[in-house]
Amino acid sequence: MNNLCFNRFTLRTDDAKIRRKILRWLALNYRLYEYHPSDAEVRGRFIPCKPFPAEAFRRQIGKLHNDGTLFLRIVSADLYTLYVEGNVYQRGAWHRIFL
């Protein structure tokens, strides 16, 4: 994927400190252009300069392994090639889904 990739995310955790840490990291490293918080979860969109930075997310989330309630789903789409990929962090492990 060499084109601009759009990413949608859903973030759930019972720990407000971890939620703020992940959202701050997203805002500082990517163009976070949509953000919808609710009591149960946060949904939003971001654009990286490169395709979905899986390794960066794995390193960042790996530091937060002690939160068993952390759920992060990121669906990446490249509109030019119709490429869609899903990455889900749940129960301490990353799962990758190609659509």
Commentary on this structure:
The model has no long low-confidence stretch (mean pLDDT 82). This protein has a six-stranded antiparallel beta sheet, covered by helices on one side. It has helices at residues 16-29, 54-62; strands at residues 6-12, 31-37, 42-47, 71-78, 83-90, 93-98. By secondary structure, it is of the alpha+beta class. 12% of the residues are buried. The two termini are 15 Å apart.
Class per helix and strand makeup: alpha+beta
Share of residues in strands: 35-45%
Measure the end-to-end span.
15 Å
Backbone shape? globular
Record the strand order, biggest sheet. Answer: 2-3-1-4-5-6
The ordered H/E elements are EHEEHEEE
> Could you give the count of β-strands?
6
Low-pLDDT segments: none
Give the overall pLDDT as a whole number: 82
Estimated helix fraction: 10-25%
Evaluate the radius of gyration.
13 Å
Please report the number of helical segments: 2
Largest sheet: 6 strands, antiparallel
Secondary structure topology:
Elements: E1 6-12, H1 16-29, E2 31-37, E3 42-47, H2 54-62, E4 71-78, E5 83-90, E6 93-98
Antiparallel strand pairs: 1-3, 1-4, 2-3, 4-5, 5-6
